[in-house]
Amino acid sequence: MIKQKIVFFTEADEKIGLGHLNRIYNLSNYLSKKTFFSPILVTNKNNFIQKINSKRGIKIISINKSSKKKILEILKKNNSKILITDISYEKYLKKNSSFLKNFFSFFKKRNICTISFDDPFQNIFSDYSIIPYNIKNFRNIKRFKSLNNKKIFTGIKYLPIEPIITKSNKKKNKINILILLSSFPKIQVLVKVMNIFKSLNLNNNFSFMIKCKKIKNLENIFLKNYSKLNIKVFNQFISNKILFNWSDFVLFGSGMTKYEVMASKKPGIMIHTLKRHNDHLILNFIKKYFKIVNHNILSKKSARRIFEECLNKKKQFNMIKKLKKIDFSKNMQNIYEIIQSVNKSVTKNGIQRNT
What 8-state DSSP symbol labels residue 143? Predict the structure, then answer.
């Protein structure tokens, strides 16, 4: 049976991190197991793509920047009428507010059906939108009122993530703290976090693993300033799944990592800096499961009290209890069904758009 080729486009770099690329790669992996689809992953040239091991029939193509013409060329070459995107909206909204509108308009004019993974915070320009956030009464949000009901899919059940199975820590007297702050552009946030742990006068029962961007002499900085803390430093290419196996507690940023931590069922604290994460839609959902600390208060006593509280085993147990109620086991299947439905519609009726 000839498989239908589906083209994905996403990006990764040191600024926006690996989140978009990881989730689209995982979705491509899932689709490659299905009878109907042969995924083609298109991404910008970056250092990260070299670290991804292409398996299960996924074809990966690197292009210069977000070249619309190159993506169109790949679509035509593979006889594909569907483009699925996961783009860093924050990056382009800051850089060029009309980029997204022009990007999707380009493909619409050339009769390409577009499916995009979107935030609840920006306008939607694609034919089908997947907003993987739990949004109550989202139709009351102004930008959604004029859109066709059938073309927007909302809810965490559409997040392209699978359950992360981790091992429990056999050394009950040892607490392993994992710090995933590679999304932060400056080391100051990480230093403030470590200063809090230093002030808590933790005993030898605590160990730290820090995953962050490659910063010159970073390990020397930690050895010099935090010699009493047991610390290991890893670059951002190591898999989070490996680190979750080791950890008992996680500190993480505002990006996709928060959902990986949810999937691993590890208790933790989210430290956020991104302005769009000030929106109550996301924060109200996240704080059901984790404590949230704004990076601006990391030097204050209130942040120290939150850290101290969360290191309490009873508090951690309550977090884990809530996290176990989250089920990501059907997420990939939910997205697959959307893609399959769109593919059937496009094949049978062509691309139907509201005028």
Answer: G
Q: Are residues 260 and 134 in the same domain?
A: no
Q: Which range of residues forms the domain containing residue 186?
A: 175-323
How confident is the model over 174-221, as pLDDT tens digits? 789 999 876 555 678 888 898 898 888 877 778 888 887 665 566 677
Do 220 and 193 share a domain, yes or no?
Answer: yes
Considering the domain architecture, whether residues 133 and 185 belong to the same structural domain is answered as no
Q: CA dihedral in degrees (177, 183, 184, 187; nearest 10)?
A: 60
User: 29-82 pLDDT, tens per residue?
Assistant: 888 887 677 888 888 776 666 655 554 457 888 887 768 999 999 999 999 999
Contacts of 250 (CB under 8 A, 6+ apart): 177, 178, 179, 180, 244, 261, 264, 266, 267, 268, 269
Q: What is the CATH number of the domain that holds 90?
A: 3.40.50.11190
